[in-house]
Amino acid sequence: MRRVSMRNLGAHKVRLFLTVFSVVLGTSFVAGSIVFTSTISHAFSGIFDRVALGVAVQVSAKDAQSSGVPNAIVDDLTKRKQQLGIDRLVTEYSGLVTLADSSGNAIQTGGAPSMGSAYIPPDQALNPADSQLLPGGQAPQSADQIVLNKSAADNAGLHVGSKTRVVANSSDLKPWDVTVVGILKPTSDAESGFVTVQFDAETASGLFSDGDHVGAIDMSAVQGVTPTELQQRVRAAVDQNQLKVQTGDEVRQSQKDQVNKFLNIFNYILLAFAGIGLIVGTFIIYNTFSMIVAQRNRELALLRAVGASRRQVSRSVLFEALIVGLIGGAVGLAGGIAIAALLVAIAGATSGLPSGSLQVTVWAVLAAVFVGVIVTLVSAWVPAVRAARVPPVEAMRATQAEGSAPLRNRTIAGALLAVIGIAAIAGGAVGQGVGPVILVGAGTAVLIAAVVLGAPALSQPVVGGMGRVLAAPFGKVGQLARTNAVRNPRRTAATAFALTLGLLLVAIIGTLGSTFKGTVDTNVDSSITADYILNGVSGSTLSPTVLSEVKDVDGVGKATALSFVAAKVGDKAVNGRAQRGDQLADVMNISMLGGASKTIPDGQMLVSETTSNTEGWKPGSTVTFTTYDGQTVPVKVAGVYRDDTQALGPWVLSEKAYQRVMPSVAQVDYAVFVKASQGANLSQLRDALTAVVKPYLVVQVQDREQYKSTVSSQIDQMLGVLYAMLGLALVIAVLGIINTLALSVVERKREIGMLRAIGMLRAQVRRTIYLESVLIAIFGAILGVLMGCGIGWALARTLREWGAGDPVLPWSLIVITLIGAAVVGVIAALWPAVRAARTKPLEAIADV
């Protein structure tokens, strides 16, 4: 039986290739996800293995939003160095900066941090290797001199002696010109988009601290004192409510953990899409083996007739599946390594993630082989059982009625599941928040199961109805294509399901994207009255000095900045907004409840309707914020605004309250809204604003339409990434249609030969296959789009708590998808149609 199976595989090389390839695509992404994250994690480990080298203990603030470590702690630890066992003590200062490249534009980091810090000479550094400069460089001596890391210098086209410009995002300083006086010697083989700009200690202190705090304190221990012992002594000497005391090893591990946490999330996303590919691939493999068994009915029955047992027959089918799985897993591993290499290259170029040599771990190998084998065996199990039940008498039949079993039971089960799934989705759409989202997700899973069971029965009237319309112009050829498409509803449904699942996800994402873009457009049109909005490119924050410079421009009537606020109320972390400059009511429409004034009095705040109801923050009540420096700040609620002013978020502080709640080193703006003075020329005002913000490198001036377009383009970019990843499922779906049609041609060889013998032309044969494929593809597309839009609509309703507006269906995407499905049907049918047209009538009729 093993020899029979091996010869059967060898005799059908094309069928073997198509089946293996569907396994390869799914396993490639699983293996690729593991190799990619292992590679990036290894590269980050190489970087972070050098973090805090030479540091025995580090004292830092518990929260990044705080002012840092008080100078009093530095002075106290310095005085007690000998008592505590401290050898050297070094203070750190750091903050976000933007640096211009050789052409005067901001260095593009792809999302990697661009950090400024203090340069520590090798003779003072705890790890001198981190401060080594390349030959020809020197330490910065003044505010107009900087030291730069080599990878950033290379990317920016800068070298020792280059003139450039720097912007400190959280400083009151305006952009200033600097000279590169040194390039840091690389300490890691990993390349990345990180930018490290180092100043002299005095400049760094002025830029990144309020004068009363430092960023962190690094200490080395005297000989004979272990890091753990020094940690215990320092902990006893400082206030642990606001500060954390870590050993150098703990600092390195905490940074690695943060990175790995991000990488794990990214890996889960990749694996989710790989899982989608595997699910689609599973149906294709199942469909393939079902057809193989059907085509081999006579062969298997003859084996039974000459003495093969049911167990031997089923084992032979499973053995073929095992071979397919092993080959698919092995090739999938190679494909995964190639995909990982591509992802690493893209990540290094666009996101600033470090790169290094590919890490092909044992887990990647095992995952590829395990997934390939298990998925294929599971997919082949039902056909194997069916094959074992073929009675020997079947060998004496000239034809087989594969797929003719009644659909009644599975259709009833599918209908019941559909009712349950739709009810769950509708129930979730009524609410909002995490619970309803989960309910919609559960309903979606049930509905997909319902489609799997009920699609065969549904395909007959739908495909038949479409065939009467779409195939009618083609006469008898169209009628034959329609008959072929509905003759085996199980096969039609299984083939279409691959496309259904992919397009279902496309429709869900498209609906959510259209909803969010529609929400942005509605909010901007209804809320913002400013003539121009100044915001950072790619989400960059703005220096607080942008507002002060804008207010001095001729033609500016009102200018208001919106700033981020982070604090605590009780033990709960809260985030909101603050206004700086003129009142928000001067640049926005704010709809107030109860006739309250839109003006925010000094030291007070406005809250949204939802926040007022959920938190109990009513007009006249006082909200006590606790800053991340441990200070309490009571703020009175002046009024409540309606939730339709989305730009304001949950609450807004006045400028005076903002200055008390947020430490000065953490104060940044994310947008400045400008209203022109009466009679001002808007075009001239725009030119003046552009000239003023040009030195800030990342600030753009936009009118309301441009602002909406920018936000929409950002949404489109995110959707583009998701669509690209969903392309995997669609590619597998197309291959599934090709596979099914190719096997169908083999199964109908005698039939096609007979048609050719009685006069059907090759072009007519090809046209028949094209039409059959188009009908199947459109059926799958209609199911996917209808389900996806309904589920996307329900999800959008549940996301109202997070700012989503009324659901918006992506009509253009729907039309494009249906047209694209017809095109996919033709493309998928090209090879099977050509193969069918080449069928030789006499050979086909004589085939047994």
TrEMBL record:
Organism for this UniProt entry? Gordonia asplenii
PANTHER family found in the cross-reference section? ABC TRANSPORTER PERMEASE YTRF, MEMBRANE COMPONENT OF TRANSPORTER-RELATED
| ABC3 transporter permease C-terminal domain segment(s) | 272-392, 724-841
Q: Which InterPro entries match?
A: ABC3_permease_C, MacB_PCD, Macrolide_Exporter_MacB
GO function terms (MF aspect): transmembrane transporter activity
In Swiss-Prot or TrEMBL terms, this protein is called FtsX-like permease family protein
Q: Where is the MacB-like periplasmic core domain?
A: 17-236, 492-691
What is an example of a Pfam family matching this protein? Answer: FtsX
Which positions, given as ranges, span the membrane?
Answer: 265-289, 317-348, 360-382, 412-431, 437-458, 492-513, 721-746, 769-796, 808-831
Keyword Transmembrane helix among UniProt keywords: yes
The reply to whether DNA damage figures as a keyword in the UniProt entry is: no
